[in-house]
Amino acid sequence: MSNHNASFPALRMRRTRASGWSRALFAENHLRPSDLIWPLFVTEGSNIEEPIASLPGVSRWSVDAIVGCARQARDAGIACIALFPNTQADRRSDDGREALNPDNLMCRAIRAIKDSVPDIGILTDVALDPYTAHGQDGLVDGEGYILNDETIDILVGQSLNQAAAGADIIAPSDMMDGRVGIIRAALEANGHQNVQIMAYAAKYASAFYGPFRDAVSSRGLLKGDKKTYQMDPANAEEALREVALDISEGADSVMVKPGLPYLDIIRAVKERFTIPVFAYQVSGEYAMIEAAAAVGAGERDALVLETLLAFKRAGCTGILSYHALHAARLIA
Q1: CATH number at residue 154
Q2: Which of 88, 137, 140, 165 has the CB geometry, 3.0–4.6 Å to 107, for a possible disulfide?
Q3: Would residue 203 show up in a list of annotated catalytic residues for this protein?
Q4: Considering 114, 203, 226, 312, which one is annotated as catalytic?
Q5: Is the entire prediction scored with pTM above 0.70?
Q6: Active-site residue, from 114, 223, 226, 257
Q7: Per-residue pLDDT reduced to its tens digit, 160-177
Q8: Range of the domain at 300
Q9: Rounded CA gap, 123 and 203, in Å?
């Protein structure tokens, strides 16, 4: 029997945690299927599901098969999917001109999904790394430096190409200076006023992107690194400057990438700006969860839900995650 007097403690913090209904009632943040965006990789061929070794449980899908993925996402309550192309080697070039082809892999996938699953949103990546022979996100000069303004000219054409195919959200991930404003002006001038821009505003030069580069077949092509245009992981104030610029140029929402290692950036952006903030739980983060679950270091479902909820707690409007379909089914 406790010897504490009747007045101890005046407030017991455990009181509201004592039962499931009470924990649900007092929960400060909630994760819903509509908070999730599911990234999908599209590849050439027919009736293809091609597993990606470094991303267990994730595959590349042919255009016809990716329509089925979009239907699964919609049925699970996911509002939007994100598409990334695995461009064939013979269609890659130093200038990434395949990005401008109206019948490229990305555009065919967009049209096929819109024809069959018109009520799901489609977010499309705008950058040249899936199309360049050197694996960089932009055009490269003779000394290996990524050319900013010349790259933007191609990104504008790529954005218009995807918008014409039916993309709902253009997501420039290239990190060139000034590209959001120029893309926004081009979309307006070409009748795409309702196409959104989700700017990869704070995209860091991260060690967590490796499996993604496998998925789009750019890892083996990449010469050098991307540190001259992606952000230094040491910097936080710089991220706020990047976000402010993208907002001023017309971004409808902004993204922080990667996710869990940059929760402080998400929180800082949310507190500083009145704009929807998204996070990309990137391929390396996904792979770590899968690796932990595979060796019994953690329970997969619990790890997935806890990490996704962390993004909501930090201030995210939504999250791009390879676990999106699995998580949506868990919380439905």
Answers
A1: 3.20.20.70
A2: 165
A3: yes
A4: 203
A5: yes
A6: 257
A7: 999 999 999 999 999 999
A8: 30-331
A9: 17
